[in-house]
Amino acid sequence: MKSSIELSDRERAKRSALIALAVVAVAGVFTLGWYWLVGVDQPKDNPRVIVGKYMSAVRSKDVHTAQDLLCAELAKNKQDVADRAKRFRKLEYSIGRASKQSDTEYRVDVAVDAVVNLSGQDTPTKTTYIFKVIQENDDWRVCGITT
Asked: Fewer C-beta neighbours within 10 Å, C or N terminus of the chain?
C-alpha cells in the first residue's frame, strides 16, 4: 500500500511539473505571438543613434558630421551648427527614450550637462532637450531641438 501512495505522490509531482512547464510554454508562445502580431518598433533605435552621433559631433566640434545629420530644412543654415558647437566648453550627455510621433517622426530625450559660453561668460547648465528626428529620403535626421 505504501508503494502505491509513493507512486501517487510521484505522479502528482510530475503533473505539477508538467503544469508549470505548460504555463511557461503558453506564456512564451503568447509573448512571441504578441511581438509577431503587434511588432517590435524597430526604427525606434535609429533615431536615438542619430541623435547620439549628432551630439558626439557637436562635442568634438566636428561641424561637417553634425551638419550631415540635420534635416534639409536645418541644413540650410550652415553657420548655426558651427556657432552651436563653438559655444560648448564642456558637453556631457545621455541619450534617453525615444517616443514615436508617427512612422517618420520621433522625439528623443537627451539629458545634457554642459558649460556654455554665453556673451563671454562660461555658464554651467543641466537640462533635458527634446530632439525632433524625422525620416528623410530613408535616413533619420535631426530636425529640431526644444527644452
From this structure: N
